[in-house]
Amino acid sequence: MKTKSKSLRKTVSAKKALLGQVLKKNQKIKKDVKKAASELTWVNEVLKQKKVTVQVMEQALIQNKDVEQKVAQAADDLRLVNVKLANEVAERMGIESELAEMKTDLAEVREDLSKAEVNVEVAQQLALQDALTGLPNRVSFEQGIDHGLIQAKRHGWGLAVLFIDIDKFKTINDSYGHGMGDQVLLTVANRLKSFVRGGDTVSRWGGDEFVCLLLEVKQDDDVVRLAEKLVDRIAEPCEFDGTVLSITISIGIAIYPTDGETADILFKNADTAMYKAKGTENRVVLFRTVPH
Fold first, then answer.
1. Its pTM surpasses 0.90
2. Which residues contact 139 (CB under 8 A, 6 or more apart)?
3. Count of alpha carbons within 13 Å of 4, Cβ hemisphere only?
4. Nearest one of 129, 250, 233, 252 to 190, comparing CA atoms
5. On the CB side of 103, how many CA atoms lie within 13 Å of its CA?
6. Where in 12-157 does DSSP place strands (E)?
7. Residue 232 contacts by C-beta under 8 Å, 6 or more apart in sequence?
8. Which is catalytic among the residues 130, 165, 200, 208?
9. Burial 29-61 (b: 16+ CB within 10 A, else e)
10. Quick check: is 208 catalytic?
11. Among residues 74, 128, 251, 254, which is most buried (max CB within 10 A)?
12. Cβ atoms within 10 A of the Cβ of 15, count?
């Protein structure tokens, strides 16, 4: 397409130059015809005179013959010019047709590119999204915590990672089927998402595990209280096709920088605290309170 466009531009440029030459030739012919007409007028005036010397008569006849030759030559030149103009018009129409085709091709290319960009954007979104719950997936969450840690270190903020596990989820799947299990996961995801602040992140980590990223943490106790409220919110009864379930979760908490200064350590320590929480009454454990 690019080569064709460049070639076409060269052709158009050459045709413009040639057309300019033809038009200049046409102007010259007009001048020659005008001059010949003037000379012919002089000859006619001479021939009209009653008293004309032989010498003047001969000069007038010679001038008349010369004018006839110039007019004949101008007529031939004009025919050539008309032929060239006709050819130029035909070629110009051909070029305009090619340009129209190129515009159509370019429009189609732009449309294809636009669709490709949309498809790439959709693919990128899907690559960072959990298919079942629509929450950010593990990859997205890892990107978020890396960015969060940079901001936390720069501004001296706290940052909390909450590792969340649904208790006895396998029993739910075995007793009611995977369809019911998916409904439970969706319910937990929606309740978690509706409970945290807009700047915080809830993600499905995998299986029946979720993680929350809380930014700009000021008091550790605030995080623990939030986690306890999350446990109570998730435990509220929910009905699925006539079956009422009470879902419980366990939450482990690791807070930057006290419980870890890197994403890997925070995840590991929050996971450790979560398993410890499964044996407690309120099901929430802060990593630093876990006996080592």
1. no
2. 127, 128
3. 9
4. 233
5. 6
6. none
7. none
8. 208
9. beebbeebeebbeebeebeeeeeeeeeeeeebe
10. yes
11. 251
12. 14
